[in-house]
Design brief:
Elements lengths: L9 H12 L3 H14 L4 E7 L5 E6 L6 H6 L27 H8 L1 E7 L6 E7 L2 E8 L4 E7 L6 H5 L4 H16 L6 E6 L2 E6 L4 H8 L10 E7 L3 E8 L11 E5 L2 E3 L2 H11 L11 E7 L4 E2 L10 E2 L2 H18 L43 H12 L32 H4 L30 E3 L3 E6 L2 E6 H19 L4 E11 L2 H17 L2 E6 L2 E8 L7 H14 L4 H17 L9 H12 L14 E5 H6 L3
Helix pairs in contact: 1-4, 2-6, 6-13, 8-9, 12-13, 12-15, 12-16, 13-15, 14-15
């Protein structure tokens, strides 16, 4: 029997490595920009076309490479940053494994132009599919110019799984921002399809944050600095005011020794520092930088190097929390408590004059007052309260309204209710629910259906088989989602004009996402007009939209689309409808009347699929009679 184990060719091994290091165009930009930073560049330009599918170009003014270094840099595990295993635990650079360029060259066509300051001519190397196709001397400026073309051209399966241009560009922008926030001393520029999306000049950390998030009005005035110095770690950065906290916050950053990281444990320390100043379910803005001995962390536990292991996490946690608290307290954001005077009454200071005697106050008592004679007491008060006021009503009867028709004589209680025949989408008011014949009658008690609200979150009602429990928020999400999808499919809208239009400014990636969702938003009821430079005027909103401002709705929908991994070409309508439904649905904690509960349940049970939300979360749970009786045995 012949041997079956063999060594893979370098080209195949590089493609396998590329699957770990290069997941999408954003991964290429991250690796190349980090190499430019390690090369000492103070001006880095990123040029992309078609969200990186066609071209990714990174140009820097760093120290460049010699002809030999340029050639060997494409070999796997070729690196200038580590020489022994001990160096892995004392890293002061961004890239170090020597897999990035080899992985990029394995799945794309790469052109490298580079020159050192001491060299008269530079070097051009062309690589495609790990194969060097050309190497020659050329004239070029000092620094390095990488041009990566047609990513995944030789791995069609990987290219097919790339998302839409809007999503891929949002990932590129995210990686670009993560790096730019750490190095304010470096000038960055991001260009997409020949349009400058971001141009960041040199400055300090706060200036860089303000420039990156310039579409967030007044962000520089909502940030407060924090600073912690200890023998273990140095922490500095900025935290935002409690009122700027959001449920989905994309302005939360941790950096360790110049490297972005995700850390849920330290995030909990930041949130806990705010205490009760945050609304439930919201998270604050923060930009926090850690400087720590490289030997006490491990950055090589994840291929993307966004997860970092600390030796002393439990010791750093209280430092993070106390630093944030001190920063908030320093600017009088955190409430202070004076335990000596908290809740005390304001008493005037007594200063006796000429030894004047103090007389006890006289208390007048009505011996004829009887507290049990409420009607008599009330009538007496009523008579006394109207004495002298009769003149105010002179002539009132003469000018009193008289009905012009029999229709005006209809008592208020007989006037038609909004529940009777009106179908309204959105908002938190009782008009949101629709009344009608309920399919629940086939399973509920025929004589009388009772509804009870439990913890202002669930609706409980008896059915023939036992007890039915309904999640009120999810039920309303399901109802509204079907209504929004109906509007989109029929290409109809119910929009109401705004008296004062709102202006919304977007980043380049947000503008691309909005472009994909624009048509569906119009069908739902939003009326937006472009004003140029990624700015829009919101002129109309869906009818009876009461939960928040139109700008908040649009921002939340864009953020939700940005975070999702959907195919924008086919699923954007469903995601827009679901986002709108979640924003508009009745929230947890709101008390519902019997009529609202009955309307909500009947509207839910008329739907084709009332058991689950569009994102597959359970709405209804039925506890059978046997289950209930079993609990009492």
């Amino acid at each position: 029997m012949s041997d079956i184990i063999h060594v893979l060719p370098d080209s195949v091994a590089n493609q396998i490595a590329a699957g770990e290091v290069i997941q999408r165009p954003a991964s290429v930009i991250k690796e190349l920009v980090e190499n430019s930073i390690d090369a000492g560049a103070d001006n880095i330009q990123v040029v992309i076309k078609d969200a990186g599918r066609t071209l990714i170009q990174v140009i820097d003014n760093g120290k460049g490479m010699s002809e030999t270094d340029a050639r060997i840099s494409f070999e796997r595990h070729a690196t200038s940053k580590i020489k022994s295993a001990d160096d892995l635990f004392a890293l002061h650079t961004m890239g170090f494994r020597g897999e990035a360029l080899a992985s990029i060259a394995a799945i794309a066509q790469v052109e490298l132009r580079t020159r050192r300051p001491e060299d008269e001519v530079g070097t051009l190397i062309e690589v495609a599919g790990s194969k060097v196709e050309n190497q020659t001397s050329i004239s070029c400026p000092v620094g390095t110019n990488f041009a990566v073309k047609n990513i995944f051209y030789n791995v069609p399966a990987r290219r097919k799984f790339l998302k839409s241009n809007a999503y891929e560009f949002s990932q590129i922008e995210r990686e670009f921002i993560r790096i730019a926030l750490v190095y304010p001393q470096i000038e960055f520029q991001l260009i997409h399809n020949d349009q400058i999306c971001m141009s960041l000049k040199k400055g300090n950390y706060k200036e860089r944050i303000s420039n990156v998030f310039k579409n967030v009005k007044g962000i520089s005035t909502t940030l407060f600095s924090i600073h912690v110095d200890s023998s273990l770690v140095r922490i500095h950065g900025f935290v935002g005011k409690p009122e700027t906290a959001k449920k989905k916050n994309d302005r939360q950053f941790f950096f360790v020794n110049g490297r972005f990281m995700k850390h849920s444990y330290f995030h909990s320390a930041v949130v806990q520092a705010y205490g009760t100043m945050l609304q439930p379910g919201t998270s604050p803005d923060y930009f926090i930088y850690f400087e720590i001995d490289p030997e006490s962390i491990d950055v090589n536990i994840h291929p993307t190097k966004t997860e970092i292991k600390f030796e002393s996490e439990t010791a750093i946690w209280p430092l993070v929390m106390s630093g944030v608290r001190e920063g908030l307290g320093k600017f009088n954001i955190a409430p202070s408590i004076d335990f000596d005077s908290e809740g005390a009454a304001e008493l005037p200071v007594f200063s006796p004059r000429n030894n004047a005697s103090i007389n006890m106050p006289n208390v007048k008592i009505d011996p004829n007052y009887n507290p049990f004679e409420q009607e008599q007491s009330h009538s007496t008060y009523k008579r006394s309260s109207t004495i002298g006021w009769e003149k105010l009503y002179e002539g009132f009867e003469a000018s009193k309204w008289t009905p012009s028709s029999a229709e005006d004589l209809t008592p208020a209680e007989e006037q038609p209710s909004l529940y009777d025949n009106e179908e309204i989408i959105g908002g938190e008011s009782s008009e949101n629910f629709h009344e009608g014949e309920s399919e629940a009658e086939t399973d509920t008690e025929e004589t009388h259906v009772e509804y009870m609200q439990f913890k202002n979150k669930y609706i409980i009602t008896p059915v023939k088989s036992g007890l039915m429990c309904i999640d009120q928020h999810r039920a309303h999400v399901r109802i509204l989602y079907d209504q929004y999808m109906s509007l989109i499919s029929r290409k109809q809208n119910a929009s109401q004009k705004m008296l004062f239009p709102e202006i919304i400014e977007l980043s380049e990636s947000e503008n691309m996402i909005l472009g994909d969702a624009m048509e569906d938003l119009q069908y739902i009821g939003f009326d937006l007009s472009p004003l140029g430079k990624n700015t829009y005027s919101i002129n109309g909103t869906p009818a009876n939209m009461e939960n928040g401002s139109a700008k908040e709705y649009i921002t939340n929908i864009i953020q939700s689309l940005k975070e999702s991994r959907i195919d924008f070409k086919t699923q954007v309508a469903e995601h827009v409808a679901l986002s709108m439904a979640k924003l508009s649905a009745t929230p947890y904690g709101r008390e519902l009347s019997d009529k609202e509960m009955m309307s909500l349940v009947s509207s839910l049970l008329r739907l084709p699929d009332p058991n689950f939300t569009p994102d597959n979360k359970a709405i209804i749970k039925v506890f059978s009679t046997e289950e209930i009786e079993k609990g009492f045995k």
